[in-house]
Amino acid sequence: MWTWFYQLASPKWFYEISRKLLPWFTGTTLILFLAGLTLGLLFSPADYQQGNTVRIMYIHVPAAYLSMMVYVIMAVAGAIGLVWKIKVAHIVSVSCAPVGAMFTALALLTGAIWGKPTWGTYWVWDARLTSELILLFLYLGFMALHSAFDDKKSADKASAVLAIVGVVNIPIIHFSVEWWNTLHQGASLSKFEKPSIEAAMLYPLLIMIFAFKFYFFTVLMHRVRTEILLREKQAKWVKAMITGETAYSASENTTEAK
Amino acid sequence: MAMKPHRKKKLLAIVGGVLALSVAVGLILYASGQKMNLFYTPSEIAQGKAPLDQIIRVGGLVKMGTVEHVDRDDSVLETRFVVTDKAMDINVTFDRVLPDLFREGQGVVALGRIDEQGVFVATEVLAKHDEEYKAPEVLDALERAGHPVKKDD
Q: Where are the transmembrane segments (chain A) (predicted)?
């Protein structure tokens, strides 16, 4: 069962498999965004209290969801890199950070824009908003720490430790609205009972969450591929590919056979 | 395939570290207690848990049938209402612009100070909305069917 695990460890293998997967992920992302945005912005009903303002939800909720999901992936990949010394794991971890930071900033920004007309304020220092802001700082800290080292290996290790430490913040963000009283309302989706959101709004929202997920994996693959090329620029397979792309892909199997 | 001992050790160190850190952060958050809350409830104020000499936030529902608009002597429109947590009530006055979502039965968080008469004089009122998302048509249908959704106290 460990074969796939060690295969993943090979940058070349990842580069090959991601090239085949990318068109599918890009296509799925586009279709999901088109469907989600059309349903959410044009065909879903306005809210009984908030009116059309509620449509910010179709961006805000997926962005906030992804901001946490990406962080967990970043930390887990960092931990795998530390334990098994897998190059690709560290590359995934490092590639997650800017994308995650972008989702976090988007969640904070759309939240502020949403907050003004509904709550009456852009920002309030409640537990939910503050812990999400800390998440942004964790991402930025991770990126700053990683770029502070000249040696990539030390950079990978140090930033992986930071990512793992910051994981403690994720349950705090999620449960902040239950543990303390906040201005931010409680969860509508991720609770065990029936979601407290109407089906005509729920489906576009779920589609948007999947669209964001596929967008993330598409962008992540692109970033990981670029990082692999940067780090493996001395490797034979990279040199072969760059000096003669056509010769490389045509003779891909024959060189293996030799 | 078994894990190599040095890898197992490292993995245990990471898992142990995260657990220890979680406990530490958990204790810090537990110790901060009330400070982590954005507002005091009317019950907490009644029990004397809120500092009365400071600017504080009070949160709860706007009690049904208590909102009144009064023209003050200095020709400012003042809104008076009662904030309740269904156990205790507190009188609130506010003379600025209310958020769109402010209405009876709605959650609010008010920033201000309690005066000598025990009235909470707010300088800011924020609307807290719940996690329910519904289309207006659904609400009408529910009301027609005799199941109004409006929360009452």
A: 21-43, 63-84, 91-113, 133-149, 161-180, 200-221
With respect to residue A31, please indicate whether it lies within any of the assigned structural domains: no
CA–CA dist B81, B65 (Å, integer):
9
Residue A96 lies in a domain: yes
**Partners of B128 in the beta sheet?**
B107
- If one counts the domains in chain A, the total is 1
Please give the residue range of the domain that contains residue A221: 55-184+193-252
Q: What's the complex ipTM?
A: 0.81
Please tell me which of the candidates A84, A179, A188 has its beta carbon nearest to residue B7: A84
Per-residue pLDDT of A168-177, as tens digits, reads 999 999 999 9
* pTM summary value: 0.87
Confidence of residue A189 (pLDDT cuts 50, 70, 90): confident
Is A186 close to B130, i.e. CB distance below 8 A?
A: yes
| Domain coordinates in residue numbering, chain B | 5-33, 37-128
**Confidence tier at B151 by pLDDT (50, 70, 90):** very low
Residue A36 included in any domain: no
Which one, of A211, A242, A170, A195, lies nearest residue A40 by Cα? A211
Q: Is B60 left (phi over 0), alpha (psi -120 to 50) or beta?
A: left
Of residues B10, B21, B136, nearest to A165 (C-beta): B21
Least confident span in A70-74, A78-82, B107-111, B144-148: B144-148
> Mind telling me how many Å the CA of A133 is from chain B's nearest CA?
15
Q: Does domain B37-128 have CATH number 2.130.10.10?
A: no
Asked if B133's CB is within 8 angstroms of A196's CB, the reply is yes
Which of A1-5, B2-6, B39-43 holds the top average pLDDT? B39-43
Residue A131 lies inside a defined structural domain of this protein? yes
User: Residues A95, A220: contact at Cβ < 8 Å?
Assistant: yes
Q: Do the Cβ atoms of B106 and B67 come closer than 8 Å?
A: no
